[in-house]
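# nightly structure sweep
# worker-07 picked up a monomer target from the shared queue
# config: single-sequence mode, recycle default, output format = structure tokens
# input follows
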Amino acid sequence: MTAHPCKLALADGTVAVGTAIGARGEAGGELCFNTSMTGYQEIMTDPSYHGQIMMMTYPHIGNYGAMDVDTEASRPMIAGLVVRRFSHRFSNRLADESLERYMQRHGLVGISDIDTRRFVRHIRSRGVMNAIISSVDLSDNSLVEKAEAWPSMEGLELASRVTANAPYDFAKGTAHRIAVYDYGCKTNILRTFRDLDCAVRVFPGDTPLRDVLAWKPDGLFLSNGPGDPRAMPDAVSTVREAIRAKIPTFGICLGHQLLALATDFEVFKMFVGHRGANHPVKNLMTGCVEVTTQNHGFAINPESVRKDDAAVTHINLNDHTVEGLSFKNFAGFGVQYHPEASPGPHDSRYLFKQFVKLIDNTH
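# output follows
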């Protein structure tokens, strides 16, 4: 296989030379990194990563190929992929194809042979920034200028680009009716509700609440998704309306942030986001520590959380950021991390049962 040169250029002028993987072309977005040791295909198809270039810290990517069963969406959602060592050959009897073929089929641009440890240290000290991957333009100056001009994630609304086009039924269970606001919902969230025998109907993110309530749901779920929640005033207004309607509500990641904004708490962009399958979170209600999967670049300002309106239920043990809220003036709670995580860990899967119990206690 002939190696094709490729470059990674950051907005601060840092440039590295590597080898092209996937489709030939150019891609730009906010450069972030994920510390997971497995699950690269779930990460690549997570709608919350829309508009971001994903750098994997685990050195070997592609070694177990690609398979449809591992996807969180029908196509890759990341803008580009950065790895240390890319495996063109794979070993997995369940794989449908190589990761290289999967990327080519979907037009996903990537770069290999990059010193990812160096770039992770760079981002951790300088903060997240935009970058460009290109195998068609190899001019350092040109690529840096493109990275500098790329739109900032701060103030960017992206959920409308990944939401469903129309309402659809995912599951027809008999336990509870769960209405899902889709801001970029991961498929495994829907599977988890289905496994609890819930009827699940997914609604586009801009659906008026009256149309959702016409389905007569027992509970409302606010999904994960990409972009800046502060750039979603219509969604915040809809969540406020749901709060007034007193419908039991559960939010994950972006949905958690929308619940906070609807309660007039503050959300800020993090210097470096949390992305990986190994973040320790302490449940302040039980004292237990959960190993969690995370993917977010925004967080709730703990000083803005009014004790009369909500209680902080979970904190991140690495930096003490807010990871969970339980609201006091309506039946609702949210978490910043991903309890549905596939392939894992599964320490926080109990939260879905907690939501079902909340519905039972409310009705």
